[in-house]
Amino acid sequence: MFGAISERYAFVMSTLGDDSSFLEHSAFVHESVSRAEILHVIGDVDLGSVGRFEQAMCRAERKGRLLVVDLTECAYLGAAGFSALVRAHKRLGPNLHVAAPPNGMPARLLSLFPAHVSFLVAPKLERALRPGSAHESRR
Asked: Which of 57, 71, 74, 127 has its CA 20 to 30 A from that of 47?
């Protein structure tokens, strides 16, 4: 399922070519599943894409439903993206979970600021989808 998202993104990237004036280096794909809303982040979240990232999170939010931000295919999460997650947590509280592999750049950034990251960060999407997982570590 998630591999198909990457394949579609890769196809779009290869079709557009190297026109960097037009080409965005990130994609945000919203998916609804029975337990949650998922926002798949593909590519980079930096100063140039953070506005689209925040808009995508706002569009994916549903009152009373869990929002999982899937960073498993996010190559770079800059300070602007980190701040957007903190703002989303202020809006959503415990209904915000993040999936970020422990060896990836986004997870390393999140681990540097434990006082600001009170939302659940799970190493895999499947674990982030568990509502209120007490056994998951909050960073």
From this structure: 127
